[in-house]
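Question: does this match?
>
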Amino acid sequence: MKVIIMGCGRVGTQVSQHLDEMGHEVVVIDNDERTGERLGPKFRGRVVIGVGFDRDVLVKAGIETADAFASTSASDNANVITARIARNIYRVPIVVARLYDPRRAEIYRRLGLVTISSTSWGAERIYELLTHAELDVVLNFGHGEVSLVAVDAPPRLVGRMVNQVSVPGEIGVVAITHEGQAEIPALGTEFRAGDLIHFAVHASAMSRFEGLLGLGGGS
């Protein structure tokens, strides 16, 4: 996959390095001449020095044939402008913009942009760690309304079936991993000792979910 990363701060650097390590073709756009040094000697991708919303710079980076584009600079405005150019003008299939101000996320979502707010994600994650410390929340959807939670099968679930713990609209079993093999379970699938279970849980049902597992004070 050919990916363009606009902005090479801490987030952009980590994303670029990881994509490069995974074998993707990565092009980084940044106006700092030291960008190549920041990426390190192991980085095999290409660096284009310039402003990310300059069309000549984008063309030089190969945006016309890019499979994905991420705006990760320190400026919300620059990130949104470049993301809209990538999506609306060059029709890049996958476009993501990083935002610092979570209040803008809904506005840009209506414009068809996928945004990531580190502020919102961080606040949600801290809340989860403080209020649901015994649960391993691995991913949030939307604004945190739904969480993907990983749980080692507790004794009270072993021998029970998926349909006995599923609550429509509140709690669902997404996947079960047993001895390294993952499956999408049927309603009649039985939980076994040693299972790693991934649940989708609505925020309003988190206490009920804890009670189901025998954690905390949920019921």
In short: The helical segments are 10-21, 35-39, 55-61, 76-89, 105-110, 118-131, 206-213. The chain has a mean pLDDT of 85. The longest helix spans residues 76-89. The chain has two domains: 2-120, 132-213.
